[in-house]
Structure formats: structure tokens, C-alpha cells
Specification:
Elements lengths: L2 H25 L2 H22 L5 H30 L29 H11 L6 H11 L5 H8 L3 H17 L14 H16 L11 H17 L4 H14 L25 H16 L5 H14 L8 H14 L3 H14 L2 H7 L10 H13 L3 H14 L3 H13 L1
Helix pairs in contact: 1-2, 1-3, 1-4, 2-3, 4-9, 5-7, 5-8, 6-7, 8-9, 8-10, 9-10, 10-11, 10-12, 11-12, 12-13, 13-14, 14-15, 14-16, 15-16, 16-17, 17-18
């Protein structure tokens, strides 16, 4: 990847969501902000290879996107005035000369696109109750987290065209229903969707589901953690926010050991625990204690407890799998999703026997296209001594995987069989 390509990729991933949040608040128009940022990104792809990378790419994007937004507003205003002149009787107040965007026509290139509260604010705005929860999360991942439709679709385990339609319908509903871009008084009503967004953003950075040559995107993990910390400050008495932060910290503590020198995956039992980041683990333990003290258990706290058992174990052999399996039993009563049931089966396989784990695997087609389901099934078969069944399951996982590091790992596992 060239310097220009890397800078453009960073612009899309890090700066574009922040600028979009800033413009959406400034112009009170989500669709306008999204289009303006898209125009500016296209301009960057055209100009930068010729003129070079600006000294401050984020400020450049903010300035250009702001101007594109103003251009669009002015064109709309001209069209309205022409319509008013041609068919003034269609307007309730033909003497009105002020347009809905007149107060936003001040171009302020000094505006800072890096304010976390702008992004957090827009996350709550996108999570409007008029939208379905899936639409809320998908729209926010696309606009605020900067994930592509391919990446979001992979996280949702659905086809990309289906996800693209979901995002388009959500944006259209906000526009057509004139849903106001202001924060509700009760943020708690939208908190579940916002936490889901942050969790999925972190997971995508932790190990992307797409074909990106970078198996991990630490910047995306750190962005999710930064926004989660902002949310902790905003709503400090909500236990699940502390639970999510603990979960992110426990996983992030291991990021230096998850890949070897060849960028190949290193599984949890084989990681060098002396290189795990102890401050992250200690902060995770503190966040989890804070969450539990609030006595409002939830799925993120339970997942954090499970991650804590892994991260605090001195070595893989001392992992308390019985306790982890019991926690998955409790988690399944709150969140009986197919992936939770899959992880529960793996824990049972480690705590009891490989065959017990195989028997506990979720049935049905929900995970048929999820490569990690087949990889987990293969590992359980291998532990049970069924090499042929393991090879078949590994091959199916390899067929469905898209992340290059995972594909290489599965190739090695197939060879091991």
C-alpha cells in the first residue's frame, strides 16, 4: 500500500465519521452531511495523488466537505426560490424569504472535526426508536464507525445487498419522516443500540471479517474504547457501559500477541502472556468491579467476566472452564443468540468433554455460513479424535472465511489433520 493509499484509507476510517458527525449537527441534515463527506472523499482520491497529502488531512476533509454541503444547500435554496416564483400559490407563506438552511451558511473551516461528543451524539441520533434496532446499528456503523457495507454485512452474517438496502431504507426514513436531529431527554432508551454499535465496531477492529489485508485494526478498537469511555462519563450509573469497557479492555490487552511476525494468527492458548498489557487488564478488572457494584447484571458484564477468567489466568492450563461454561449458561438466558450458544458449546467441550461440546452445538441454519461455527466444530472433532470429521469442518470454514490471516490459519489446521 502506497503512502497515498494509506492516507486515504485513514481518512475514510478515522476522519470521515468525525466530520460527518460535525456536519450533521451543524446542518441538521444527516443525508446532506453524508453526501457532502462522500463528495469530499472523492475529491481527495482525485487530488491527493497529484497534489500530495495535506498537512492536516482531517481539517482538509472538514473544510472541503463543509463547502460541498454549503454548495448543496445553496442549490436547494435556488430551486426553492424558483419554485416559489413559478408556483407561489403552493406555499403556505409566499412572503417568507428565509430558507430552512439559511442559519447554517457560515463556512467555518476552523471547526474541530475531532470532538468525540459529536460522534457520540450522532450515534444516539441514528439510534432513533422509529428505526428497527438492526437498522439503527447498521446505519450507525456505516456513518459513524466508517465501516463498509461488506464489513457490516459480515458482522451481521447477512448478504451485502440486504445490508445495503437496510441502510438505504433507514436513511430514507429519517429524511422522509423529517426525524429531528436532536438528542432525547432520556438517553437510556437508545442505550442498547449504541452499546451494540460500539461492541460491533470493536469486534471488527479486533479481527475483521472482510478481505482487508490487515487482520486487525487496532485504530478501530481504540476508537470504540474512546467512545465507550466518553459514554461512561456521560452515563456513569449504567452498569452495562462499564461492563462493555471491561470487555474491550480485556481483549485489547492481548492485541500485541494475537499475530506472529508473519501476521499469522496466534490462538489464545499459544499467546505469550508475559506480553499482555497489564494496565489494560487492571483497568478491565476495575471497570468490571464497578459494573458489578451497581447490581444491574447484563450481557456485556457476563461477557466481560468470561473474558476476565481467560485474561487473568496465569496460563492456558489454569483457565477455569467450568466457571466459564456456567457463565455462558447464564448469558444464554439473557441473550440466546446463535453465537452465544456456539461459544457455550465450546466452553462445555472444554469443561466436560469434546462430545458434550459437539452435542451442545446450536442446530439449524443460523450459523451455516459463519466460518467460526465450522472451525469450532472442527476443533471439537479433533479433540474427540475424529480427524476426518475435523478435516471436513475445517475445509468448510476455510471456504467461508475471508480474512487472510484466518484463511492461512485454517490451511495450517487442515494440514495438521
Amino acid at each position: 500500500m502506497t503512502n497515498i493509499e494509506a492516507a486515504l484509507a485513514q481518512l475514510v476510517r478515522q476522519d470521515a465519521p468525525r466530520v460527518l458527525a460535525l456536519l450533521a449537527g451543524r446542518f441538521s441534515d444527516l443525508h446532506l452531511a453524508d453526501d457532502a463527506v462522500a463528495d469530499a472523499l472523492a475529491e481527495a482520491a482525485k487530488q491527493w495523488p497529484v497534489q500530495g497529502i495535506p498537512d492536516n488531512p482531517g481539517a482538509w476533509l472538514n473544510r472541503v466537505a463543509s463547502r460541498r454541503a454549503i454548495d448543496r444547500v445553496r442549490r436547494l435554496d435556488v430551486e426553492r426560490r424558483r419554485t416559489r416564483v413559478a408556483a407561489h400559490e403552493l406555499h403556505a407563506d409566499p412572503n417568507e424569504t428565509t430558507t430552512m438552511h439559511d442559519t447554517f451558511l457560515i463556512d467555518d473551516p476552523s471547526s474541530d472535526p475531532n470532538l468525540p461528543e459529536d460522534q457520540l451524539r450522532l450515534m444516539f441520533l441514528c439510534c432513533h426508536p422509529a428505526l428497527s434496532t438492526d437498522a439503527q446499528v447498521a446505519l450507525t456503523l456505516r456513518l459513524i464507525a466508517g465501516l463498509t457495507t461488506d464489513e457490516i454485512a459480515a458482522a451481521y452474517l447477512i448478504p451485502t445487498p440486504t445490508l445495503a438496502q437496510r441502510i438505504s431504507r433507514a436513511k430514507a426514513k429519517i429524511r422522509d419522516a423529517a426525524i429531528p436531529l436532536h438528542l432525547p431527554q432520556q438517553l437510556e432508551h437508545r442505550l442498547d443500540a449504541v452499546l451494540s454499535v460500539l461492541y460491533l465496531v470493536f469486534n471488527e477492529g479486533y479481527l475483521g471479517r472482510g478481505e482487508d489485508p490487515e487482520p486487525m485494526r487496532v485504530d478501530l478498537c481504540e476508537e470504540a474504547m474512546r467512545l465507550t469511555r466518553s459514554l461512561v462519563e456521560l452515563l456513569p450509573e449504567h452498569a452495562e457501559i462499564h461492563g462493555l469497557l471491561a470487555l474491550e479492555l480485556f481483549h485489547h490487552a492481548r492485541h500485541d500477541t494475537r499475530l506472529d511476525a508473519n501476521a499469522d494468527l496466534v490462538l489464545l492458548p499459544d499467546q505469550d502472556r508475559t506480553k499482555w498489557h497489564r494496565p489494560d487488564i487492571e483497568q478491565g478488572n476495575a471497570a468490571l468491579r464497578h459494573a458489578m457494584a451497581l447490581k444491574a447484571p447484563g450481557r456485556y458484564q457476563m461477557q466481560a467476566m468470561i473474558a476476565g477468567y481467560h485474561t487473568n489466568a496465569p496460563d492456558a492450563g489454569e483457565t477455569n472452564w467450568s466457571r466459564i461454561a456456567a457463565l455462558y449458561d447464564r448469558l444464554a438466558t439473557i441473550d440466546p443468540s446463535p453465537i452465544v450458544m456456539l461459544n457455550r458449546a465450546v466452553a462445555i467441550g472444554m469443561a466436560e468433554s469434546p462430545q458434550a461440546g459437539l452435542d451442545a452445538l446450536p442446530k439449524g441454519d443460523d450459523l451455516a455460513t459463519y466460518h467460526l461455527f465450522h472451525a469450532a466444530e472442527a476443533e471439537l472433532h479433533l479433540l474427540a479424535g475424529s480427524e476426518e470429521a475435523a478435516r471436513t469442518a475445517f475445509a468448510e470454514a476455510r471456504r467461508l472465511a475471508r480474512n487472510p490471516a484466518e484463511i492461512r490459519h485454517l490451511d495450517r489446521r487442515i494440514a495438521d489433520c
